[in-house]
Design goal:
Largest sheet: none
Radius of gyration: 19 Å
Number of strands: 0
Distance between the termini: 43 Å
CATH superfamily of one domain: Tetracycline Repressor, domain 2
Shape: elongated
Mean pLDDT: 85
CATH topology of one domain: Tetracycline Repressor, domain 2
Strand content: under 5%
Low-confidence stretches: 190-199
Helix content: 55-70%
Length: 204
């Protein structure tokens, strides 16, 4: 295979991953078929197995892609020039709760049900766990530089969970009160003294 052919193959493969990541976030991994992905990617279904051994392999890579992109966007929100360091967290929270198209739904929310151990394959469950930890660490790094810099890691975990939970409830009920309450709590939360040793989040 020539260099141009390899480059095109890599481009096609990335196109499939990008399309799948958006489709899975919009509709869930189980509702989207290989045929759906390939049609949206503008390719034939028969060409799928030139790039992936199975749908499960595509799901794992596409979901990893979704988490990586979210983490990158979060980091960019935290790095934008601002004289006020606390503005980094405000920008991240504003972005997280902003209205987005279904294909850009937070992967923690969009993929939660499909990634549950009782119905997900091991690869997807592992990808989801890693992705959640990646987003938590990104959140913690940004939060620890601003309003929440003096709170314990346990409180950061609780705050992060509240943010994600409010997103779930708001989307499911259509009621923005969950978002409003959590945004206020996140940005106005009084600091508490951290313990002598901050434990790291463990993976179960």
């Amino acid at each position: 295979m020539g260099r141009s052919n390899r480059a095109q193959a890599e481009k096609n493969r990335q196109r499939i991953v990008d399309v799948a990541a958006a489709a899975f976030r919009k509709s869930g991994t189980q509702a989207v078929t290989i045929a759906d992905v390939m049609t949206q990617a503008g390719m034939t279904q028969g060409g799928f197995y030139k790039h992936f051994q199975s749908k499960e392999a595509l799901v794992a890579e596409a979901c990893t892609n979704a988490f990586n992109r979210s983490a990158q966007i979060w980091k960019e929100k935290g790095r934008q020039p601002d004289d006020n360091v606390d503005g980094s967290l405000e920008r991240l929270i504003a972005h997280y709760f902003s209205k987005k198209p279904p294909e850009k739904t937070c992967p923690m929310v969009a993929l939660a049900q499909d990634a549950a151990p009782h119905q997900a394959n091991h690869a997807l469950n592992a990808v989801y766990q890693t992705g959640v930890e990646q987003l938590f660490e990104t959140f913690a790094a940004i939060a620890s530089e601003g309003q929440l810099k003096e709170i314990s890691r346990e409180r950061l975990v609780l705050t992060f969970a509240a943010m994600v939970g409010a997103n779930v409830l708001s989307r499911a009920t259509g009621d923005q009160k969950w978002v409003k309450c959590v945004k206020q709590a996140l940005l106005d939360q009084p600091p508490s003294q951290p313990p002598a040793s901050l434990p790291r989040a463990s993976r179960h």
